[in-house]
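User: Hi! I'm working on a homework problem where we have to compare a predicted structure to a textbook description. Could you give me the structure for the chain below?
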Amino acid sequence: MADARVLDVWILALATEEERVRADDLGPIVARVTSGDPEALGPLYDALAPEIFAAALWRTGSRADAADVVQDVFVKIATAPGLLKGVKHPRRYVLTMAHRSAIDRHRGSRPDLPIDDALLVQTNELDAGRSLDAARATAALRELPDPQREAIYLHHFAGCSFREVGKITGVPTFTAASRHRLGIARLRVLLGGSR
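Assistant: Happy to help. Predicted structure tokens:
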């Protein structure tokens, strides 16, 4: 039972440690990008690249492929700035672009490195006990099917609602919530807790 609480605390800690740019905050940046201001690409990149990289890494298991996904997304935006014009939810739209690009890259490729430290990026400032807990939870996350792991990442780490998770991954909201629920239940079992 203590291990399941470790997972809950770990997920909550990581979800609150990262400061995210919400969709409302992206509005002025996106407006500058769509008007053709090349200087706006930098702030947009700063706001979204870490989330795109993390989501792509979870999908592909490859740092090189994840970096390529980030590049693909921003090359598309840079070469067609009007792409984001009229988009109501630019963050979700860009994450959807990344999701599709990651799926394309993942087909036919194998992960090059374990993703152990994908979740531990922020833990270098934490105590050793939390780093160990994060390592155990990350190992457990690797045991989940891709759709469940992706739903957990998008909901807990990227801060997406289940509706947004569904839109990004191309499934109904109920399916996104179900994948998340099943993944969390499986993580609790893997970490020695009960359902």
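For your comparison, note the following. Residues 8-24, 110-126 have pLDDT under 50 and may be disordered. Residues 168 and 185 are 22 Å apart (CA to CA). Good luck with the assignment!
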